[in-house]
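The authors assume throughout that readers already know how a fold can be written as discrete tokens. The format is easy to grasp once an entry is in front of the reader. For illustration, here is how one protein appears when written out as sequence plus structure tokens:
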Amino acid sequence: EKPEWRGYVCSGKYAQVFIRAKLPGNLLMTMVRDEYPEHPLTLRGPTTQGASGTQKYQPAVMLEKSYTIHWNGRAPEQIFIYPTNFNSGDWVRFGLCYPRGTIFRLSYQLEKRVPVATVYDEEVYPTSSLNAVEAGSGKLFYFEESTGLLFLKVRANYDRDG
């Protein structure tokens, strides 16, 4: 027993997501695990090029859980979400806050790191229910107009290297 360590051991499977937000690039991101709304995590990422640039966040997430992401200002025009340390089949579901009436174009991409290049690009299609997103393979999204939440499932299709 080491009470001075102030550490905890949590059961479950964890990974990270790397999130890039563009236009504006100067926002605080608040992420809430939906089953614990009273414990939000607020992140300020490093920015490049100020408000017109990109902001980056890298929160740890518990796999097979649902999270809601809020912004402290106008929602970013572009968001890139990269699953990090996921194995094939691992997933998390996100609800991202956007104004009612927003029109979306989502794509699923595979990127090569060196040199950086997109090696696969597939459109992600809208569906009429959250249940379809939850049952799907990560290539559907649902925008709930009444709440302004864009729901998507981020799912890894390949095992990680290393």
Observations:
- Residues 2 and 8 are 11 Å apart (CA to CA).
- The chain has a mean pLDDT of 89.
- The longest strand covers residues 117-126.
- The chain is about 5% helix and 50% strand.
